[in-house]
UniProtKB/TrEMBL annotation:
A GO MF term: ATP binding
Lineage of the species this protein comes from: Eukaryota, Sar, Stramenopiles, Ochrophyta, Bacillariophyta
Identification of the protein by name: Uncharacterized protein
Major subcellular site: membrane
Family, per entry: Belongs to the plant ureide permease (TC 2.A.7.19) family.
Protein species of origin: Chaetoceros tenuissimus
Signal sequence range: 1-17
Length: 415
């Protein structure tokens, strides 16, 4: 059972690191779309992974949510058809409520990430690092105290948590440096294009102005004074907008922090639902049943949150849309989002089932999913291919820290 639980957790790690790449393909920005199209022309093979789309993020997330709950119902169907099922899907309402609270917490965490980045313009790298850190620290600690008998070597467990935190910081630092390098490269290209496209050199313009004599000087002085006044006004408006944006970013980070608190409690909620450590009933819910109620609450909260986000806000970076626009989209454009929801549902079921077998404290090893996501970024989105040695070293530290954390969490489990 121990080995099967570890295997399930490792498979869950792969699934949870894969579905974000599918979601990214659904609303792929132009630069990444061009890269993927060039790669497709070189390989002369066309698959749905090499066909990026440009859909509204809320439409994508709704498809993802609906497919998530549908895929989560599949294990329940097998459970009902099997002869080993001894409980009803509606039995133990208190534990059902706890499972639904877990699904709602995960959905609120995802919605907080959407709002903090899309509405309040908080940097995605900072938001992901903040929420991932809280998830690992809170989730692992609470699960350990709920099931201390599942952990034979707690010092290894918390060494693994520390390794995960180092990996999260390293991943965030590498992403920040990579984005800075990309922005600097684009600025250099734009500067070169500006110089090349300038039709008349600056010294020639000065010579032409000097040939007009003193009659043009007052006009030139007037133009200079007017230009200076306009610059002062623009600087004032720029500083005012910058101050406003900074306050919105701070609010976005507060929203992300609250979302991190939510995501830190979602696995302990599921742990309580399936193990019933407080002995409210004779035993806990079976994992497929708890997973279905978890998915139902997750989808319900996700739909409500995205319907609100579809209306847009004054500071949102995504355009407003309507339910009719979402319904009218062809089914051919939904397959990536449906695939993402299905893969995520399968990954979460593996995480919950593996945590039930091996212990939920060690189940947080699936938070090393950026290992897989980074590989998708490299091979599919061609990121980190032309980067500095410094970024490469930081990524190596990230990989080593995640692998060390996974090993420590696995070794801490009681067989």
């Amino acid at each position: 059972m121990f080995s099967l639980g570890i295997l399930m957790l490792l498979l869950s790690l792969v699934c949870l690191g894969t579905w974000p790449a599918f979601m990214r393909l659904c609303s792929c920005e132009k630069e990444l779309a061009d890269i993927i199209h060039q790669s497709r022309r070189r390989s002369s093979r066309t698959t749905f992974l090499t066909s990026p789309q440009d859909r509204h993020p809320c439409h994508v997330y709704l498809d993802y949510s609906f497919s998530y709950v549908v895929a989560s119902s599949i294990p329940v169907m097998f459970q009902i058809m099997s002869e080993n099922s001894n409980s009803s899907i509606f039995a133990k309402p208190l534990l059902i409520l706890v499972a639904m609270i877990g699904g709602s917490l995960l959905s609120l965490a995802n919605i907080s990430m959407q709002w903090s980045t899309s509405v309040y313009n908080a940097p995605l790298t900072t938001v992901v690092a903040l929420q991932s850190s809280l998830c690992v620290v809170l989730g692992t600690s609470i699960n350990y105290f709920l099931q201390p008998e599942k952990t034979s070597k707690p010092h290894l467990l918390f060494i693994g948590v520390g390794s995960f935190l180092i990996a999260i910081v390293s991943a965030s630092r590498a992403q920040i440096l990579y984005q800075i390098q990309k922005r600097n490269a684009l600025d250099r290209d734009e500067h070169v294009n500006t110089i090349v496209s300038d039709g008349v050199p600056l010294y020639q313009k000065n010579d032409e102005d000097s040939n007009h004599g003193s009659i043009e000087l007052p006009n030139a002085s007037f133009r200079q004074h007017t230009h200076s006044s306009l610059n002062d006004s623009e600087d004032y408006m720029h500083s005012r907008n910058a101050s406003s944006n900074q306050s919105h970013v701070q609010l976005g980070l507060i929203v992300a922090f609250l979302g991190g608190i939510c995501i830190g409690f979602f696995t302990p909620s599921f742990n309580i639902a399936v193990n019933d450590p407080f002995q409210w009933y004779d035993d806990g819910l079976e994992v497929p049943y708890a997973n279905l109620w978890f998915a139902f609450a997750f989808t319900l909260c996700s739909v409500i949150g995205n319907l609100r986000l579809m209306k847009g806000t004054a500071f949102s970076t995504i355009p407003s849309t309507t339910w009719s626009n979402y319904i009218s989209e062809p089914w051919s454009e939904r397959r990536l989002a449906f695939s993402a929801g299905t893969i995520c549902a399968f990954g979460n079921w593996l995480q919950f089932q593996g945590g039930f077998l091996a212990g939920f404290a060690a189940a947080d090893m699936v938070q090393a999913f950026p290992l897989v996501s980074t590989l998708w970024d490299y091979f599919l989105f061609h990121e980190f291919r032309q980067t500095s040695c410094k970024v490469g070293c930081i990524l190596s530290i990230m990989f080593a820290s995640y692998l060390l954390g996974i090993s420590m969490l696995a070794l801490s489990i009681s067989e």
